[in-house]
Amino acid sequence: MIGRLNHVAIAVKDLAAATALYRDTLGARVSQQQPEPQHGVTVVFVELPNTKIELLEPLGAESPIAKFLERNPDGGIHHICYEVDDILAARDRLKERGARVLGSGEPRIGAHGKPVLFLHPKDFLGTLVELEQA
Ligand code: CO
């Protein structure tokens, strides 16, 4: 059911420093900072040949990343995103198998303008999983 790894998201406290680390130390191609107030984050996309890394810095008081950074002050992997062909079919299959879909269970429009869902980390080996209809 799941297809390509769309991205790995890393929560960071200092987006400028994280971007410089990826650009200058790791030699990666990085985007401009992109504020996404509806998701409570500012994002920098790191373009790799086979996938993307998203560096996420909290934006606003309600940011879902802020709590994560309280528990992980050095930053850390926040979620991984797999592509699926049909997000509603994927959701129904997962629910049938007892996996918990976060929020209302209805897909939201994610950072790339495509429908996404998040799955409970306790059901997936301690990893927050995002599904994106590619
Ligand atoms: Co994501």
UniProtKB/TrEMBL annotation:
<dbReference type="Pfam" id="PF13669">
    <property type="entry name" value="Glyoxalase_4"/>
</dbReference>
<dbReference type="InterPro" id="IPR051785">
    <property type="entry name" value="MMCE/EMCE_epimerase"/>
</dbReference>
<keyword id="KW-0479">Metal-binding</keyword>
<comment type="similarity">
    <text>Belongs to the methylmalonyl-CoA epimerase family.</text>
</comment>
<protein>
    <submittedName>
        <fullName>Methylmalonyl-CoA epimerase</fullName>
        <ecNumber>5.1.99.1</ecNumber>
    </submittedName>
</protein>
<dbReference type="InterPro" id="IPR017515">
    <property type="entry name" value="MeMalonyl-CoA_epimerase"/>
</dbReference>
<keyword id="KW-0413">Isomerase</keyword>
<dbReference type="InterPro" id="IPR029068">
    <property type="entry name" value="Glyas_Bleomycin-R_OHBP_Dase"/>
</dbReference>
<dbReference type="GO" id="GO:0004493">
    <property type="term" value="F:methylmalonyl-CoA epimerase activity"/>
</dbReference>
<feature type="domain" description="VOC">
    <location>
        <begin position="4"/>
        <end position="134"/>
    </location>
</feature>
<dbReference type="InterPro" id="IPR037523">
    <property type="entry name" value="VOC_core"/>
</dbReference>
